[in-house]
Specification:
Layout lengths: L12 E7 L10 H18 L2 E7 L3 E7 L5 H21 L11 E5 L3 H11 L1 H4 L13 H6 L10 H8 L4 H18 L7 H4 E5 L1 H11 L8 E4 L2 E5 L24
Length: 257
């Protein structure tokens, strides 16, 4: 199977997508999604992973992280994926891969493009038809941003404020809530594969810079443009990342046990 892109350049924000093996609903039970979230918290504490947003669905996960140049993203993904898969296989007396071979990473420009990516992640389960509002899905960064837990907080709210160019956490919550409500009201919850198939998303200057920094790996990739910005395309076969199951219900019977 083609291997997913996972370039990491220091200081940049990355949208990471990782799906379960062969799109199986291996995260359909809430207990397994909670286990994944605890490992995400562990990665933050152990490796200094800077998390800006996340969601765990029934067959894949989204992470928005900022690279600090210490190799923390790769180490964190190894910890999270490895322990989640091992725990599930042990409990289910199951053998074989839990995750697809590799995860995919897209560089996202800070500011307005990051805001769009943030909302895209938040609306994942709305697109899937599982919930009417992102606040209805338990394992989501939307809930944590709007109502941070007293313990085991995963998202670095101050880092998110900085990356979005906002003034403080109160403004973050107000803007975040408004962005999501605007997205719901406009009906703009359709899937956009720029966030899962691209090497970079942002302004033309940002995407060109990422292409240069990636060197030979991205030299012959195509930069495309639309009304929302520019993106550096990944070859279609790079991750088989259509996430087709997103378009159908991601909440099978018993999915909240």
């Amino acid at each position: 199977m083609p291997r997913a892109n996972r370039h990491f350049l220091s200081s940049h924000v990355w949208h990471i997508t990782h799906r379960c093996h062969e799109r199986e609903f291996l995260l359909r039970f809430a207990r397994d999604r909670r286990f994944w979230l605890r490992r995400l918290y562990e990665a933050r504490k152990r490796h200094g992973l800077c998390v800006l947003n996340y969601i765990a669905t029934c067959n894949h996960v989204h992470l928005l992280v900022r690279d600090r140049g210490q190799g923390e993203i790769a180490r964190s993904m190894q910890l999270i994926a490895g322990r989640t898969g091992q725990a599930y296989n042990r409990r289910k007396t199951r053998k074989g891969a839990f995750w697809e071979d590799r995860y995919h990473a897209t560089a996202v420009e800070t500011g307005e493009h990051l805001a769009r990516c943030l909302v895209y992640i938040d609306l994942n389960m709305v697109r899937a038809g599982a919930v009417a509002h992102p606040g209805d899905w338990e394992l989501s960064g939307y809930r944590e941003i709007q109502s941070p837990p007293s313990r085991y907080q995963v998202i670095d709210l101050e880092a998110l404020v900085d990356a979005l160019g906002l003034n403080d956490i109160d403004q973050l919550r107000d803007c975040h809530r408004r962005w999501v409500e605007d997205g719901l009201a406009s009906g703009s919850v359709v899937r956009n594969d720029r966030w899962t198939r691209s090497l970079a998303v942002g302004s033309e200057a940002f995407v060109q810079r990422i292409q240069q920094e990636m060197g030979a790996d991205a030299r012959f990739r195509t930069i495309e443009h639309d009304g929302a910005g520019s993106y550096l395309k990944e070859p279609a076969a790079a991750y088989w990342a259509d996430f087709g199951a997103e378009m159908g219900p991601l909440r099978p019977p018993g999915g909240h046990k």
